[in-house]
Design brief:
By secondary structure, chain A is α/β, with parallel strands linked by helices. Chain A has helices at 3-24, 29-46, 70-80, 120-134, 152-163, 193-199, 212-220, 255-268, and strands at 61-64, 140-145, 169-175, 203-208, 227-232. Chain B is 35% helix and 19% strand. The chains are: A alpha/beta, B alpha/beta.
């Protein structure tokens, strides 16, 4: 699938995500808007997956470590055919399997339970190591938030991935510059991320994570070392009044804001 | 500026470049003098099992030697992973390997698994019922190194974790039997480990380990001691001493802390008029003692008296292990005295 087509799908996913959060009255819309281009590129171009066989042994593994943006993953999985598209309207409803954080026990296509930050990358290291031991050819991708990189468990995993020579592992850091309560720069500022990953022995690519023409080749890149993509993104990307505003981490739009956002996203489609 | 001069330690002289390791404080044996022991029962059992099962992998946070996993490392170097001093990564990469069909056996000290990696074990392993075996040395008071290394509350923490099977084995023969049994059980297991030269106790009683089962090791009409881990060894020794004083003590060994064999415990406690004593190498809060107490209350079984032998609700002192076991009431002598005292009242 070509970048222009992927961009169109990403806009549709943004629109459906916005609707789902508005209807549910909860969600993490800012970080969902920042990561949706990467999710789209993964599921509609890069990952080898079979929606009718979510446990296919040869599937590429994808772990969404920033699990609070589960809704964006659900919408992407639905659009790709893992779950029914109409199920998105059950997001956060009682007895729905689409909970606030993705659960592998419940939702086909969700590889790993996440939610507590700092869980996805070390599990992905285990998956990539398992492939080395078994000879399996799948590639393992994981997306973390940039604020999430403050969790020490990530750096334990980064150390080990280099030590074990995991060339079958790609980490994407969704570098939208905001965490739950403040800007990254005003918290424990990890930027610039590139020299830190390089110092640990990783190959690092920096891209505009909201530009499909940069996202796709970075995800398809293969290295002799573990590969980190520092994806510079915008929190709330695609919706003007949300963009780069920390309060849109998990704010829910009013009716007026919702209509405005729908209009902006629809215009782009 | 004054600089201190490096002095070559004496043990490096005489042509040897190998430091002489003295780790007696860390790996202090719980075996009594002249007690039969077996070396590294866990490491040997796992290495043997892995010859038959190529899905078994061994992983440690730089504690292979002190968890007996070095035996597995020697036998199966291609399936051994040194994860470095990174307990969160240890648990999570084990979760990743278990997701891909391997059966990881991870080792560290009980303090690190419980206090440092709890969140990771809970959500990445237990919630999804992954087949990861967590085997941890230095449970309870089995080192004199003080609170940093004494996992006095690990059972209390792990009992609260759904899906987790918890074992507190007594001796070398039980560990040897437990390894294949928990390998056959598909799901997460936490096993407290006795390592090094581990006493052989239960073979004398013809004991057979069964996952989830409490076993009456000896019967007696005056008191019932319910115990797990090394305290079963102490209870059996105490029972022999008590016998000489005309006290008839039964010992019910409970190696599986969770799920608890409530049926056997209730049935034994129902058998008439015995003082019930629960003995455990753990704080009296949240371990076997309180688990048994809750079980009995729920079943409406009230023994004439209920007492706990266990560690106090405090951070313990450092020192020589036998001294500490006397101080905190875990030694055979102290168990014997305590039971006699309670029976005389």
């Amino acid at each position: 699938m070509e970048p222009t087509e992927l961009e169109r799908i990403a806009r549709q996913i943004r629109l459906r995500d916005l609707q789902a959060v508005y209807e549910a009255g909860a969600g993490h819309i800012g970080g969902e808007m920042s990561v949706i281009d990467i999710l789209t590129a993964l599921y509609f171009r890069v990952l080898r997956v079979w929606p009718d066989q979510p446990k296919h042994p040869e599937r590429d593994r994808f772990v969404l470590s920033k699990g609070h943006t589960a809704c964006a993953l659900y919408v992407t999985l639905a659009k790709r055919g893992f779950i029914p598209e109409e199920e998105i309207s059950t997001f956060l409803q009682p007895h729905s399997r689409l909970n606030g954080h993705p659960n592998n026990n419940k939702v086909p296509g969700v590889e790993t339970n996440t939610g507590p930050l700092g869980h996805g990358l070390p599990v992905a290291v285990g998956m990539a190591k398992a492939a080395k031991l078994s000879g399996a050819k799948y590639h393992t991708y994981v997306i973390t938030g940039d604020g999430e990189m403050q969790e020490g468990s990530n750096w334990e995993a980064i150390m080990a991935a280099a030590q074990f020579g995991l060339d079958n592992l790609t980490l994407v850091i969704d570098h939208n510059r905001f965490q739950q309560g403040a800007a990254l720069a005003d918290t424990n500022d990890l930027a610039p991320l590139r020299p830190k990953l390089e110092a640990f022995g990783w190959e690092v690519t920096e891209i505009n994570g909201n530009a499909m023409s940069e996202v796709v080749p970075a995800l398809e890149h293969r290295s002799s070392r573990p590969h980190c993509i520092v994806a510079h993104t915008n929190k709330g990307h695609g919706i003007s009044f949300m963009q780069d505003r920390v309060d849109w981490h998990h704010k829910v739009p009013s009716k007026e804001q919702y209509d405005l956002a729908v209009a902006e996203l629809s215009e782009a489609i | 500026m004054r600089r201190s001069k490096y002095i070559r330690p004496a043990h490096l002289e005489n042509g040897s470049d190998k430091p002489r390791l003295t780790t007696s404080a860390m790996i202090a044996s719980i075996a009594g003098p002249d007690q039969p022991t077996k070396p590294a029962p866990f490491g040997n059992a796992l290495a043997a099992l892995a010859h038959k099962d190529d899905g078994i992998v061994g992983m440690t946070a730089d504690l292979a030697k002190y968890t007996d996993l070095h035996v597995f490392r020697s036998a199966h170097p291609d399936r051994f992973y040194q994860m470095g001093m990174a307990e969160q990564l240890l648990m999570m990469s084990a979760a990743g390997m278990a997701r891909e069909g391997f059966q990881p056996w991870v080792t560290t000290y009980a303090v690190f698994a419980s206090r440092r990696a709890y969140d990771f074990i809970c959500l990445a392993i237990a919630e999804v019922m992954l087949d990861v075996k967590i085997v941890c040395a230095l449970p309870g008071l089995t080192t004199g190194y003080g609170p940093s290394h004494q996992a006095t509350e690990d059972l209390a923490m792990f009992r609260g974790m759904p899906n987790l099977t918890i074992l507190d084995p007594c001796d070398a023969s039980e560990i040897e039997q437990a390894v294949p049994a928990i390998a056959a059980h598909k799901g997460p297991v936490y096993m407290r480990l006795l390592r090094g030269n581990v006493p052989l106790v239960l073979d004398e009683y013809g004991y057979k380990f069964e996952l989830g089962k409490a076993k009456l090791i000896r019967d007696g009409k005056d008191t019932l001691i319910i115990s797990s881990g090394l305290m079963t060894m102490r209870a059996l020794e105490a029972a022999k001493h008590l016998q000489k004083d005309g006290v008839d003590a039964a010992v019910l060994h409970v190696p599986t802390i969770k799920p608890l064999d409530e049926g056997t415990i209730v049935a034994e406690c129902r058998k008439g008029g015995r003082l019930v004593v629960v003995a455990e190498n753990h704080t009296v809060i949240g371990g076997l003692g309180e688990a048994v107490a809750g079980t009995l209350l729920r079943a409406g079984v009230l023994p004439p008296a209920f007492r706990q032998i266990g560690l106090p609700d405090e951070f313990l002192e450092a020192g020589a292990l036998p001294t500490l076991h006397d101080q905190y009431g875990l030694s055979t002598l102290k168990v014997t005295e305590a039971v006699k005292g309670w029976l005389s009242k």
